[in-house]
Amino acid sequence: MLANMTISLIMHKRITTTLAKAKALKKYAEPLVTKSKEDTTNSRRVVFSYLQDKDAVTELFTVVAPKVGDRPGGYTRIIKTGYRANDNAPMCFIELVDFDENMAKTPKKAKRTRRSSKKAAEAPAAETPTATEAPAEEAPAEAAE
After folding, report:
1. Distances from the Cα of 66 to the Cαs of 32, 39, 61, 108, 132, in angstroms?
2. H or E segment and range at residue 10
3. How far apart are CA 135 and CA 54, in angstroms?
4. pTM of the predicted model, to two decimals?
5. 15: which strand partners?
6. I need a labelling partner for 106 at 20 to 30 A (CA). Which of 91, 99, 134, 141 fits?
7. HSE-CB for 41 with a 13 A CA cutoff
8. DSSP labels for 68-86?
9. Strand bridging mode 90-96 / 76-83
10. What pLDDT digit, counting tens, does each position of 2-51 carry?
């Protein structure tokens, strides 16, 4: 069962399963991904002895291994999704870390605004002339003409 789940994980990059199966799968799949970082005939044969699927081994060594080449470990992520309706089993999905586009994007920092003090709020109001001041200034200018 773990070999079939590992094949599905390699081919689809994310699978949904129960939490207990995902934890067991993580212990089974991560050493195989570590073994795939070194692309030799021996490592391919060792991985093939576990998986028994040529397509999955090829996918693992050609697509997955180059993406996780610099990562020291922790190739999978388990995210809990709630409970199954009929038997209330805890469900989750397990995915390969570097293949999730949503998690790979760095969140943009929100632009922080400063709150102005009362002095700053009063300063623009003092600079603009009020309606009562404007006619008073215009009247002497008209009289001078």
Report:
1. 14, 10, 8, 27, 75
2. helix 2-12
3. 90
4. 0.69
5. 94
6. 91
7. 0
8. TTT--S--EEEEEEEE-TT
9. antiparallel
10. 999 999 999 999 999 999 999 999 999 999 999 999 999 999 999 999 99
